[in-house]
Amino acid sequence: MGLEIVRQTEWGAQVDSVGDPRNQLGMLLPQLDDENHPILAGIDPYENTIFNGIQMHRFLLEWKDVTAKASTVEERELVTKIEEFALRCRDEVHLYIRFIGD
């Protein structure tokens, strides 16, 4: 089972979400020990990982590498949706992205 990605408010209310039931991100995200991607390498596939607006600049820089690896229509749709979450989180106040592991 894959991650669920949620855009949420500061109080934890879900604004939007996208699921990854086939664990496509597992093949696209950097390994946990990847020092070249310190933000994305911190996404724990078994726990919750939360990013705030301040982290979005670096998140989006690293996300370009994930996007480049997406080869199928499903993968591209998934990474595009997560990028949209990140852009909203960067541009609006009190929004967060939560990666919920299984």
Quick tags:
102 residues; 36% helix
Structural class: alpha+beta
Query: In DSSP terms, counting alpha (H) and pi (I) runs of 4 or more, how many helices?
Result: 3
Strand content: 15-25%
Look at the structure and give the mean pLDDT: 96
Shape: globular
Number of strands: 4
Q: In the residues, how many domains can be counted?
A: 1
Largest sheet: 4 strands, antiparallel
Determine the fraction of residues in helical runs and give it as a percent range: 25-40%
H and E order: EEHEHHE
Low-confidence stretches: none
Distance between the termini: 7 Å
**Side-by-side strand order of the widest sheet:** 2-1-4-3
Radius of gyration: 12 Å
Explain this structure to me?
This protein has one domain (4-100). It is built from three helices and four strands, in the order ββαβααβ. The chain has helices at 25-28, 56-69, 73-91; strands at residues 4-9, 14-19, 48-51, 95-100. The chain has a four-stranded antiparallel β-sheet with strand order 2-1-4-3, covered by helices on one side. The model has no long low-confidence stretch (mean pLDDT 96).
